[in-house]
Amino acid sequence: MTNNDFSTRAEELRARNEALAASQPGLRARNLAQALGVSEAEWVAAGCGGVKATALHGKPQEIFRELGTLGEVMALTRNDWCVHERHGMYEDIQADGPVGLVLGPDIDLRVFFTAWKSAWAVEQDGRQSLQFFDGAGVAVHKVYRTDGTDAAAWDALVARFAGESQWPVAQAYAPSADAEQVEDASAWREAWLGMKDTHEFFPLLRKFKVSRLAALTAAGEDLAQPVPADAVERMLQSAAESGLRIMCFVGNRGMIQIHSGPVQSLRRTGPWFNVLDPKFNLHLDTTAIASAWVVNKPTTDGWVTSLEVYASTGDLIVQFFGERKPGQREIPQWRDLMVSLCSAPLAA
To answer: How far is the CA of 105 from the CAs of 108, 260, 267, 281, in angstroms?
Structure first.
């Protein structure tokens, strides 16, 4: 695509966006792009909504490693139904291969770089951010500048990787080939009971070639049990009242972002149930919850339970644990809370 073609396409998309935004005020970039039939990456590249976008070139790992120079920022990871925001610094960055880690006390990430296809420095309405997109043009991660950010380091990062803008080629992902039913439930249950670590669960899904929901359904109620859709709100309210420290995981194809610690300020805004704490914000569209499950896995540290919430597509929206690290047993208060949500006993 030539510069003239890029400019023409961008101008046309900006005009369409302006008309849509005028008729439906309040829509965010992700929703505007969807309504326009384009990806969010294309929306950003075109400069819609007053965006000033600078393309960033280089390997994703190279750009990502520089985030550690920025000081305090706000890290944002979301999927279609849930937004996870965490203030802090990128510390203990490990980004040498296809899978990366950030293991700081505030920002805790699991990064899947094979999904990262484009990156942009974005300025809109006075806010500056670094935005990373996958091959379908979906945002996998965003980093927002704050009052505590090192301005010189931010500008140096953008200058180092800035390059000529290219129109993002958005290609939809093929539908999952994972089976929606476990063929041999007894073999699956045996494999589940043989786990020594919660991280073994995903490799087991790949081995059996089944979806997460199929795996939960086949495991048995003592290992995976459906609970009411309002279980998340009840859990968060209980945690806020008691000071219970939890872990909250929100992810997409390219990123999982984790909060560890207490939650305090809870508020409902229409369909959204929110955590609005100084360093941690969570925005969950509760109307998107098709099912919720208490999941019970054996480990060398004892049983570990989680609360998992799924959309009608079968995708995992958000996942909660009691705060713990490898080598530590699950917090008894968290276990008691999970048991209280269940109608049938859990394996113990």
So the answer is: 7, 8, 25, 16
- H/E stretch holding 256: strand 255-261
Beta carbons within 10 angstroms of residue 348's beta carbon: 10
Give the residue from 102, 132, 163 where a domain finishes.
163
Residue 212 structural domain: 185-264+285-341
Q: How confident is the model at residue 1 (pLDDT cuts 50, 70, 90)?
A: low
| Residue 159 and residue 195 share a domain | no
> Which helix (DSSP H) or strand (DSSP E) does residue 220 occupy?
none
pLDDT digits (tens, 9 = 90+) for 263-309: 999 999 999 999 999 999 999 999 999 999 999 999 999 999 999 99
pTM for this structure? Answer: 0.96
On whether the CB atoms of residues 232 and 309 are closer than 8 A, the answer is yes
Residues 200, 155: one domain? no
Q: What's the CA gap between 38 and 42, in Å, rounded?
A: 6
Verify that 141 and 217 share a domain, yes or no. no
Decide if pLDDT at 212 tops 80: yes
CATH code of the domain in which 212 resides? 3.40.1570.10
For residues 70 and 137, membership in a common domain is answered with yes
3-class DSSP state of 170: coil
Residue of 219, 227, 197 whose CA lies nearest to 294: 227
Residue 54 lies in a domain: yes
Q: Is 149 helix (H, G, I), strand (E, B) or coil?
A: strand
What is the average pLDDT across 168-193? 94
Distance of CA 248 to the CA centre of its chain: 10
**Whole-number Å distance between alpha carbons of 30 and 49:** 12
Do residues 232 and 149 share a domain? no
Q: Is the pLDDT of residue 64 over 90?
A: yes
Q: Residues 344, 294: contact at Cβ < 8 Å?
A: no
| N-terminal to C-terminal alpha carbon distance within the chain | 60
